[in-house]
Every structure is written in structure tokens, then in C-alpha cells.
């Protein structure tokens, strides 16, 4: 099981989607904690864009590696963040995150009942995402 | 640059679902004619409503453009204009309108549809004299472009300045870029 968890953050840093994949994953006690994590991550990402000793442009944090898992972040030009948590053996995560972005553009953006920047509750998106994640090796 | 030229065609061929042109044109036509009825042929209001509908489409459609093309950020308005016509119009409508009439400061340009290239007006004839003068039939496109550019932090004004339906030689959509919304650029972007 490569992909463990997916977070989608709005451009203001609010958590608009979160989903765990695979059985037996530990959850946080309080669903509010997920919002706190998202907000904190948003700020840390903003900080990392500024702490760049080289005199070039930096797009900030891309991956964060822990002993057991790795966190990958894709920021789109519109400011959304797709955060994918995988185990450390997962390869080609950039393909995974950009495919998730495509699924988002198809099933969330084209859902007329979805309001921009609000939490995502779209069944077709859930289904398409599940189907895609189950094919990721 | 060459990437921009091919990417629109590539996405159109492989990554988008297609719908019959006739169906699309007729559906758009019935929306416009329903709006004309609803607003009792007050064409200023119809234009506004079409622009608003387009704007809300543009806000969402931009994500699909970015997700399916992986376009990088544009560094000049000329690149932006190229992306709009060669990628945006190409992948959704399979047309590549021309660009022209650049202003000296490179902040205004026109998107030009020569006669017969705008799929929205394929079967349309305008008999009503007042509608011929006041209605911008394809005004939804102006809204789409404004909405889409706003989501990539470009504030702009868009309006049609001529339309073949009004008897002009070509349809011309004027885009004025007002400013880059610096505050809204995501952290880590240039």
C-alpha cells in the first residue's frame, strides 16, 4: 500500500478534503486536529519559501521525510495544495499528485453544487479517487 | 514556446471528452434565447448575465487547463495571450483564434475570430435590429477569460468590440490587463 493519506488545502490554508487509504491506519483523536495540521502545514510551507540562502527563487517545501512515511506537496498556480502521504518506498509521487489534481478538476470543479473553497463532498470525486489510488503501485 | 503550440492540440486529442458541435451550438443558442426572453429583450442585462455565467465557468475551468497541461507560470502578457488562445481555446473548442492589436505597453490585446471560426455562432442569424446593435452573442467567452485569468492572479477587463453577427468583418474580443494581484500570488510563486 503506497499512498496512505491525501489532504487538499484551499489557497487560504483551510483543509477542504482529507482521506485515509488502507485499513488499520491510526487516526487523530479530534477531527479539529486535522484542520490544525493543515493550517500549520500551510504556514510552514510559506516559511520555507523565504528561508532560501541562494539568491534564486524557491517554491518552498516539496517533500518531508520521516522514518516511516513521506509527505509530498504539490502547489498549483491557483494556490491549492495537494498533500500526499506515502510510505517511503513509493516512487513517482509527482505523477500521483498531478493525477489527483486532474481528478479534482474533473469531478469537483465540474460539480455545479460545489462552492469554491468549501469542503469537498462529492461522491463521484471519492469514487474516482478511490479507483485511481487502488491502481497506484 | 513550441511546447505551448503543441500542448493544446495534444490535450484536445487525448484528454478531453468530446460533444457534438451541433448539440453544443444549439444548447448555447437556447441559453441565449431563453435569457433574452427572461430579461424581456433588455440586451444590456443579457450581456451582463452571459458575462457573469462565463466568469463563474472560468473560475473553475482554469483548474482543468492547469491540471491537464501542466503549464508553467507565464512571465509576460504575450505568453499569457498565447496560452489563452493556443491552449485554452484549443483544448476546449478546438479553435486557435488570432492575436492582434497589441497596445504599446503590451497590456491590451485582441482575440480575433475570423468569420466562420467561432463555433458558438455557427447557425445563428440575427434578425432583430436592436439585438444586432446591442447583443454580444458570445459574451460568455469574455466572462470565461476574465474568470480564468483572475484565478491565476491577473485582474483584467474583457469586452467584445465587434461581432460578425453585427455585420462586422470579424469578431474581436478585447482584453485589458489591469494589474497582477500581488497579494494573492501563492507563497513560493514568482
TrEMBL record, chain A:
InterPro entries, alphabetized: Longin-like_dom_sf, TRAPPC
For this protein, the record's Gene3D superfamilies field holds: 3.30.450.70
Q: What is this protein called?
A: Trafficking protein particle complex subunit
* GO terms for cellular component: endoplasmic reticulum; Golgi apparatus; TRAPP complex
Question: Where is this protein found?
Answer: Endoplasmic reticulum; Golgi apparatus, cis-Golgi network; Golgi apparatus
Q: What is the annotated signal peptide range for this record?
A: none
Keywords in alphabetical order, please: Endoplasmic reticulum, ER-Golgi transport, Golgi apparatus, Transport
Q: Does the keyword Nucleotide-binding apply?
A: no
**Family the UniProt entry places it in:** Belongs to the TRAPP small subunits family. TRAPPC4 subfamily.
Q: Which organism is it from?
A: Starmerella bacillaris
GO process terms (BP): endoplasmic reticulum to Golgi vesicle-mediated transport
Assembly information from the UniProt record: Part of the multisubunit transport protein particle (TRAPP) complex.
From TrEMBL, chain B:
The compartments listed are: Endoplasmic reticulum; Golgi apparatus, cis-Golgi network
Pfam entry (one): TRAPP
The reply to whether Endoplasmic reticulum figures as a keyword in the UniProt entry is yes
Record key words, sorted? Endoplasmic reticulum, ER-Golgi transport, Golgi apparatus, Transport
Q: Which SUPFAM superfamilies match?
A: Ligand-binding domain in the NO signalling and Golgi transport
Predominant localisation class? endoplasmic reticulum
InterPro entries, per the entry: Bet3, NO_sig/Golgi_transp_ligand-bd, TRAPP_component
Which GO BP terms, alphabetically? Golgi vesicle transport; macroautophagy
Q: Which residues form a coiled coil?
A: none
The record, for PANTHER family, names: TRAFFICKING PROTEIN PARTICLE COMPLEX SUBUNIT 3
In the record, the note on similarity to other proteins reads: Belongs to the TRAPP small subunits family. BET3 subfamily.
Instruction: Please report the name of this protein according to its UniProt entry.
Output: Trafficking protein particle complex subunit BET3
The organism's lineage is:
Eukaryota, Fungi, Dikarya, Ascomycota, Saccharomycotina
Amino acid at each position: 500500500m503506497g499512498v496512505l493519506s491525501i489532504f487538499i488545502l484551499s489557497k487560504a490554508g483551510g483543509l477542504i478534503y482529507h482521506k485515509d487509504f488502507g485499513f488499520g491506519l491510526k487516526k487523530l483523536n479530534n477531527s479539529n486536529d486535522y484542520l490544525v495540521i493543515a493550517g500549520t502545514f500551510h504556514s510552514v510551507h510559506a516559511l520555507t519559501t523565504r528561508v532560501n540562502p541562494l539568491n534564486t527563487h524557491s517554491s518552498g517545501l516539496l517533500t518531508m521525510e520521516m522514518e516511516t512515511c513521506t509527505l509530498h506537496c504539490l502547489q498549483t498556480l491557483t494556490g491549492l495544495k495537494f498533500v500526499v502521504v506515502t510510505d517511503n518506498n513509493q516512487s513517482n509521487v509527482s505523477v500521483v499528485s498531478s493525477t489527483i489534481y486532474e481528478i479534482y478538476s474533473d469531478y469537483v470543479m465540474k460539480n455545479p453544487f460545489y462552492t469554491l473553497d468549501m469542503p469537498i463532498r462529492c461522491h463521484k470525486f471519492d469514487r474516482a479517487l478511490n479507483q485511481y489510488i487502488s491502481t497506484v503501485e | 514556446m513550441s511546447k505551448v503550440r503543441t500542448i493544446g492540440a495534444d490535450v484536445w486529442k487525448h484528454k478531453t471528452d468530446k460533444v457534438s458541435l451541433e448539440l453544443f451550438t444549439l444548447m448555447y443558442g437556447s441559453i441565449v434565447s431563453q435569457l433574452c426572453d427572461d430579461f424581456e429583450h433588455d440586451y444590456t442585462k443579457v450581456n451582463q448575465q452571459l458575462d457573469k455565467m462565463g466568469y463563474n465557468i472560468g473560475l473553475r475551468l482554469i483548474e482543468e487547463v492547469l491540471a491537464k497541461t501542466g503549464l508553467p507560470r507565464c512571465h509576460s502578457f504575450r505568453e499569457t495571450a498565447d496560452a489563452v488562445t493556443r491552449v485554452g481555446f484549443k483544448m476546449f473548442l478546438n479553435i486557435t483564434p488570432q492575436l492582434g492589436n497589441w497596445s504599446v505597453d503590451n497590456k491590451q490585446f485582441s482575440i480575433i475570430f475570423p468569420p466562420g471560426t467561432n463555433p458558438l455562432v455557427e447557425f445563428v442569424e440575427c434578425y432583430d435590429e436592436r439585438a444586432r446593435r446591442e447583443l454580444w452573442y458570445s459574451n460568455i467567452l469574455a466572462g470565461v477569460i476574465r474568470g480564468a485569468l483572475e484565478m491565476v492572479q491577473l485582474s483584467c477587463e474583457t469586452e467584445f468590440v465587434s461581432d460578425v453577427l453585427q455585420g462586422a468583418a470579424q469578431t474581436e474580443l478585447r482584453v485589458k490587463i489591469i494589474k497582477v494581484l500581488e497579494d494573492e500570488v501563492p507563497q513560493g510563486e514568482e
